[in-house]
Design brief:
By secondary structure, this protein is of the alpha+beta class. The chain has two domains: about 35-145, Heat Shock Protein 90 (2-Layer Sandwich), CATH 3.30.565.40; about 150-260, no CATH class. About 35% of the residues lie in helices and about 25% in strands. The termini are far apart.
Length: about 260
């Protein structure tokens, strides 16, 4: 009899524990998560026999691109539309295959958390000379839209923010200038060309839309757009500010507000 009572108590205890576990476990969250799932896809574009015959060293091009998932259907459609090949460098996969310029297409994930997806795409190729371009996207995973300055920063502070970034740009140009001041480092013509090119450079409010995010701060991007002949003297165009430095500029209810609360 005592054994039977102990057995019944054990079974009852097991049922109670199981019920408690079911009741207290939290349901799996639905909707948009704070990050996207990204799978790397690699495709080798094989060009036609006619193109391969004329350009034997350009028979193939390697394309590596992100396959996005893990988001709600509506937001996933928006993000995938933003990352459509035609929306990145104005070329589709078919057009890349039918043209000989591209050698490699790739991407880098800069940030994928905090409801923010930051990706930089890069293409490399050659025509008359080797060249490369980048295209940056910062996506708000709460709505699937590209984040602009007006979403993240106080509009009344735009001019002040642009001036602060421009100070860093001008400091970089001055440093490059000083590095090229050594005797016989460049001809008078090259020096005049560089100085003229630098005088035209200024970070303005119109440039504020291009910025990368990280857990530590924001890097504002600036493309000087120098021609190939003086591209080596182009400024790096990356200007970092910590979130503490940007606190007065960031909109509290914007996508970056979470970093300054």
């Amino acid at each position: 009899m005592p054994r039977l009572i102990l057995l019944l108590l054990s079974v009852l205890s097991l049922h109670v524990v199981g019920f408690s576990t079911i009741q207290t476990s939290k349901p799996r969250p639905t909707g948009v998560d704070d990050h996207a799932i990204i799978q790397r896809r690699r495709v080798v574009l094989v060009r036609s026999a006619a193109l391969a015959k004329e350009w034997p060293h350009k028979k193939r091009a390697v394309v590596t691109y992100p396959v996005i998932s893990g988001l709600s259907p509506t937001i996933l459609r928006r993000v995938r539309a933003e990352f459509d090949f035609k929306n990145i460098f104005d070329y589709s996969l078919k057009e890349y295959r039918e043209d000989t310029w591209l050698s490699e297409f790739s991407y880098e994930v800069n940030h994928n958390r905090d409801h923010l997806l930051d990706i930089t795409f890069r293409q490399e190729g050659s025509g008359a000379y080797p060249d490369s371009q980048t295209k940056h996207f910062l996506i708000n995973l709460k709505d699937g839209k590209v984040v602009k300055a007006a979403d993240a920063f106080r509009s009344k502070k735009f001019a002040e923010l642009a001036d602060a970034i421009n100070d860093k740009l001008q400091a970089e140009l001055k440093k490059i200038d000083e590095e090229n001041e050594t005797p016989n480092s460049e001809s008078p013509e090259d020096k005049a060309m560089r100085r003229e090119a630098y005088e035209a450079l200024k970070f303005e409010v119109a440039n504020l839309d291009e910025f990368e995010v990280s857990s530590k701060g924001v890097t504002f991007l600036y493309d000087a757009g120098f021609p190939h002949v003086i591209q080596a003297l182009e400024p790096d165009g990356r200007y970092f500010f910590s979130y503490s430095e940007l606190k007065a500029f960031i909109k509290p209810d914007g996508p970056l507000g979470q970093f300054v609360r």
